Structure of SDR family NAD(P)-dependent oxidoreductase:
Amino acid sequence: MSRLLIFGLGYTAERIAAALRAQGWRVDATGSAGNLAFGDRAAVAAALADATQVLSSVPPAEGSDPVLDAFGDGLAGKWLGYLSSTGVYGDAQGAWVDEASPTGGGRRSARAESDARWLDLGARVFRLPGIYGPGRSALERVRTGKANRIDLPGQVFSRIHVDDIVSGVVAGIERNAPSGAYNLADDLPCSQNAVIEEAARLLGLEPPPMLTLEEADLSPMARGFYAENRRVANGKAKRLLDWRPLYPTYREGLAAIMARA
């Protein structure tokens, strides 16, 4: 039986686990929703020894990678996957980035360091832009009055529906994809304003007013999000994983979330 060990069973990894369990996989996981406590070194080490594949969705902490620091010695010979971020590319001033683009120059230097460490181990590193899906989308923010439209002409982002991350990671496992980085992003980078406006349209509500960055009074983390501007290319994942996003743009993705509600 194929056995996957997931470090960090969060919003995205839970769905990956469910998809593989439905195919008959044994999946162990750390995290509040998992069956293992990360701090129980003996139990995690035993699960790691039995695992055929390992996937980490644990972000770096204070410049270190908790999984690699605690269990790196037990990863040899496993299929390795790591959920990273397209934030490793930094600000591209709206230009396209792909897996050959430089990393480490942006605000997420710790993430870039972990990304590089996993690559050095031969992992498949899935670089993810803004993740949305049921319960975590522009629809909820508009509905609750927490959405912002920011007046930043030319600002664009990429995003990915959680179901398309699942299909990309599962394809990487099933096809035993070559080690390396893979961008999993949809086909239409666009402004955050366009997404908010579409969510408002679907809900039959007026979109929130356009604000300057100063008027929006964003948190430092949110302001950092708007400080970077890039389009993320997904051609490598399409070529090597035979992957296609089920939701190629935010329009299909938001409509599917509405349909499930």
Notes: The chain has a mean pLDDT of 95.
